[in-house]
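Margin note: ligand = iron/sulfur cluster.
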Amino acid sequence: MNQSDVLATIAQREFVNKSLDLLTNKEKESGKKLTASVITFGCQMNARDSEKLAGILVASGFELLEDTEDADFVLYNTCTVRDNANQKLYGHLGEALSRKKKNPEMLVGICGCLPQEPSALEKIKKSYSYVDLIFGTHNLYAFPEYLSRLLSGERHICEIVDHADNIVEDLPVIRKYPFKSGVNIMFGCNNFCTYCIVPHVRGRERSRESTDILEEIRKLAGTGVKEVMLLGQNVNSYGNGIDGEISFPELLKRVCDIDGIERVRFMTSHPKDLSEELIQTIKSDEKICRHLHLPLQSGSTKVLKEMNRRYTKEQYLDLALHIKDEIPDIALTTDIMVGFPGETAADVDDTIDVIKQVEYDNAFTFIYSKRMGTPAASREDQVPEAEVKENFDRVLKCVQDSAKKQSLRWQGLVLPALVEETNTSLDGYVTGRLSNNMIVHFPGTPGLIGTIVPVRLDECRGFYYMGSRV
Ligand code: 5AD
Ligand code: SF4
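Resulting structure:
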């Protein structure tokens, strides 16, 4: 952390104390405990941010309610990567209004990616004027300050900035799981894929210093964390822009060396930056999970070029097949988009060809969504909906066939599973996650949660296994 980051952290800690005083007084006046809830949309980055927001709420004296919108303060941590994420939020906001009518003291906040997009921000201000607090991705660290202003009676707070001044470390966090945690290693994205709003709402790429990251993970390990997921929009360019900083593979090695850390995951890798050093690092250290998410987006070299992905179909195939050759027990997953402007049925045939050759273990398939301000949105050759739907169904079928076939390859093996929770639908069962990210349900007691145990994979049921402890 530089000096400005240290000062910003100290200032925010003081705001937490101020909120705590204000909240204690309010509770005395009203005679009841005040509750808060964070509702999360979107990716792993947002999930991690929500843990920080929840930590600040609890440190400020709120009782945290999980996943409910009945709290005295509801904070929506939003996503805007596709339009359906926006629509989902608007639906929730409509419902929030009816609750607010019944309870005028209720506070509603919005943060995250969506308000960073100017037209969405305008819409919120105009159509949902009862929202009490709006802030974006770059000033999440200042939530303690905004909260203390809310608790002092201020309303209609709207603080959006277009770049980050500080990387504030060490604010309180409430983790969803005691035994695993996400760890941000970088923020933002510099790739400017022509369909993507992320660089516009999350800003330019900024890596955290490796000493800060490793210190955070040492502390996490000290509290019982066994698995960490290193988070960034493009982890393979970790360290760019910091003089003398270590590479991503080196960072992985150092994380693996931390006592108590038994599993390391990371997300997301851009294929253009994935190095041989990374492949060899994964191969040589069993602590690095056998799962790689390698977004393809399209299998057509023409479409990839127009998306500004900076690889061809052949380069992607060479890379993916090489990784599978080097690390045969790795599970490869991907993101695929259908309906990018100008995409033809022949382009989609190329995508299907890549799926068939790579044989993904799983894939997220998305219909292209026009995002205001991105180059692709202003193209005249948007693909008609019916054509997109037909192509999407073809891709989905191929992805499902591949995932089904790949799931079967673990049948009968005994693999270590990190037990994450008790199974809510099967009495006496727990649910564990394998290194390759597959889920296995097996008989077990809640005492196993947070431990890594060997499990035989008895029966494949599509995307998960039924197993037994050995
Ligand atoms: N439309 C549809 N999908 C998108 N993604 C990113 N931007 C868009 C968009 N405009 C998908 C990409 C990315 C994933 C996180 O979301 O596949 O990898
Ligand atoms: Fe959504 Fe992307 Fe923001 Fe994540 S980074 S919350 S996926 S818009």
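The CA atoms of residues 290 and 436 lie 5 Å apart.
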